[in-house]
Specification:
Elements lengths: L11 H23 L8 E6 L9 H6 L3 E6 L4 E5 L3 E8 L2 E8 L3 E6 L4 E4 L40
Antiparallel strand pairs: 1-2, 1-6, 3-4, 4-5, 6-7
């Protein structure tokens, strides 16, 4: 008998990744339905900035050419959850921006209030896609101070 497992004809890894991304959609849907975050919950959501369907202002893709993390906590608005993506309004350097993020672009989801975290395999092409200027791009302004809602989170390191 062979000790190597047979190749699966069922894409289990893809099915599991899709199911876990649905958890993110369901949680965000609950926040949308309830009109805000319950208790001390807040989320760090990391996503690939050049993944298909991502629509963020150009100055953010220039600042974060591969991946960025957003914080859904106190200052967000217009959260809309669709079956394949979510939209949210956030402020970056006191400049409001609307972000559209497909769930397939999400690589990490953390709710530090309850020590819950999900990490996903990237579902992007090897080369970043060229994108045209988004309709929600604001003129680039020099920030006076860095008051952005973006944080860097290392999901691969255990503490």
């Amino acid at each position: 008998m062979s000790e190597t497992p047979p190749d699966s004809l069922i894409p289990y890894d893809e099915i599991v990744q899709e199911a876990l991304r649905a958890v993110v959609g369901r949680v965000l849907g609950e926040v949308q339905a309830n009109g805000g975050l319950p208790g001390q919950h807040h989320f760090y959501i990391t996503f690939k900035t050049h993944a298909p369907g991502v629509d963020i202002p150009q100055h953010l893709t220039e600042r974060f050419p591969d991946e960025m993390t957003i914080v859904i906590q106190h200052r967000f608005w217009d959260l809309k959850v669709r079956p394949d993506a979510f939209e949210v309004g956030l402020s970056f350097n006191q400049m409001p921006a609307k972000l559209v993020i497909p769930f397939a672009a999400v690589t990490g989801f953390v709710d530090p209030a309850v020590n819950f975290a999900l990490q996903f395999q990237a579902q992007d092409d090897d080369e970043p896609q060229e994108t045209a200027a988004a309709g929600n791009d604001a003129p680039i302004a020099e920030p006076i101070e860095d008051g952005s809602n973006v944080v860097s989170v290392d999901f691969t390191r255990k503490k």
